[in-house]
Amino acid sequence: MAEHQAKLAADSRSFPVFYLRSSQGRSHQGTSQPCRQPGMKEDWYVNPKTGEAVDFVTFARSEGRFAKHFDKDGNPSATILSAQQDRLENWRMLQELAGIK
Question: What residue ranges in 6-52 does DSSP mark as E strands?
Fold first, then answer.
Protein backbone atom coordinates (compact mmCIF):
# COMPACT_ATOMS: atom_id res chain seq x y z
CA MET A 1 0.00 0.00 0.00
CA ALA A 2 2.85 2.41 0.77
CA GLU A 3 4.26 2.00 -2.73
CA HIS A 4 0.85 2.76 -4.24
CA GLN A 5 0.48 5.90 -2.10
CA ALA A 6 3.97 7.08 -3.02
CA LYS A 7 3.18 6.67 -6.72
CA LEU A 8 -0.14 8.46 -6.28
CA ALA A 9 1.61 11.32 -4.46
CA ALA A 10 4.00 11.77 -7.40
CA ASP A 11 1.41 11.22 -10.15
CA SER A 12 -1.00 13.72 -8.57
CA ARG A 13 1.69 16.42 -8.51
CA SER A 14 1.36 16.51 -4.72
CA PHE A 15 5.01 15.49 -4.36
CA PRO A 16 6.56 15.47 -7.86
CA VAL A 17 9.92 13.81 -8.25
CA PHE A 18 12.62 15.82 -10.07
CA TYR A 19 16.37 15.66 -10.18
CA LEU A 20 18.95 18.31 -11.02
CA ARG A 21 21.75 17.71 -13.51
CA SER A 22 24.51 19.75 -11.88
CA SER A 23 26.99 19.20 -14.74
CA GLN A 24 24.99 21.61 -16.93
CA GLY A 25 26.37 24.76 -15.33
CA ARG A 26 25.00 27.31 -12.92
CA SER A 27 21.68 28.10 -14.58
CA HIS A 28 18.68 26.07 -13.45
CA GLN A 29 16.87 26.63 -16.76
CA GLY A 30 16.62 23.30 -18.52
CA THR A 31 18.71 21.41 -15.96
CA SER A 32 15.87 19.89 -13.94
CA GLN A 33 14.39 16.72 -15.29
CA PRO A 34 11.24 14.94 -14.20
CA CYS A 35 11.87 11.49 -12.88
CA ARG A 36 9.19 9.01 -13.98
CA GLN A 37 6.40 11.61 -14.01
CA PRO A 38 3.53 10.56 -16.26
CA GLY A 39 1.96 13.26 -18.43
CA MET A 40 4.87 15.63 -17.86
CA LYS A 41 3.62 18.24 -20.32
CA GLU A 42 0.10 18.28 -18.90
CA ASP A 43 -1.27 19.98 -15.80
CA TRP A 44 -2.63 16.71 -14.39
CA TYR A 45 -1.88 13.12 -15.27
CA VAL A 46 -4.92 11.39 -16.79
CA ASN A 47 -5.34 7.74 -15.85
CA PRO A 48 -5.56 5.88 -19.17
CA LYS A 49 -7.81 3.18 -17.66
CA THR A 50 -10.44 5.53 -16.23
CA GLY A 51 -9.90 8.74 -18.21
CA GLU A 52 -9.96 10.68 -14.93
CA ALA A 53 -7.42 13.30 -13.93
CA VAL A 54 -5.17 12.32 -11.02
CA ASP A 55 -4.98 15.60 -9.12
CA PHE A 56 -4.42 16.71 -5.55
CA VAL A 57 -8.07 16.07 -4.65
CA THR A 58 -7.62 12.45 -5.81
CA PHE A 59 -4.57 12.12 -3.58
CA ALA A 60 -6.23 13.84 -0.59
CA ARG A 61 -9.23 11.48 -0.79
CA SER A 62 -6.88 8.54 -0.36
CA GLU A 63 -5.23 9.94 2.78
CA GLY A 64 -7.03 9.66 6.13
CA ARG A 65 -5.38 12.83 7.39
CA PHE A 66 -7.47 14.85 4.92
CA ALA A 67 -10.82 13.18 5.71
CA LYS A 68 -12.11 16.17 7.68
CA HIS A 69 -11.73 18.29 4.54
CA PHE A 70 -14.46 16.41 2.67
CA ASP A 71 -18.18 16.62 3.36
CA LYS A 72 -20.46 13.58 3.67
CA ASP A 73 -20.94 13.56 -0.12
CA GLY A 74 -17.19 13.57 -0.76
CA ASN A 75 -16.97 17.19 -1.88
CA PRO A 76 -13.65 18.88 -1.05
CA SER A 77 -13.44 21.90 1.24
CA ALA A 78 -12.10 25.29 0.17
CA THR A 79 -8.84 24.36 1.91
CA ILE A 80 -8.37 21.30 -0.31
CA LEU A 81 -9.27 23.26 -3.45
CA SER A 82 -6.76 25.95 -2.46
CA ALA A 83 -4.10 23.30 -1.89
CA GLN A 84 -4.88 21.83 -5.31
CA GLN A 85 -4.35 25.24 -6.94
CA ASP A 86 -1.07 25.59 -5.05
CA ARG A 87 0.10 22.18 -6.30
CA LEU A 88 -0.81 23.12 -9.87
CA GLU A 89 1.13 26.38 -9.67
CA ASN A 90 4.11 24.53 -8.22
CA TRP A 91 3.93 21.93 -11.00
CA ARG A 92 3.86 24.63 -13.68
CA MET A 93 6.91 26.28 -12.13
CA LEU A 94 8.76 22.95 -12.17
CA GLN A 95 7.76 22.42 -15.82
CA GLU A 96 9.15 25.85 -16.65
CA LEU A 97 12.40 25.22 -14.79
CA ALA A 98 12.79 21.93 -16.62
CA GLY A 99 12.13 23.56 -19.98
CA ILE A 100 9.09 21.37 -20.56
CA LYS A 101 6.53 24.13 -20.96
Answer: 18-20, 32-34, 45-46
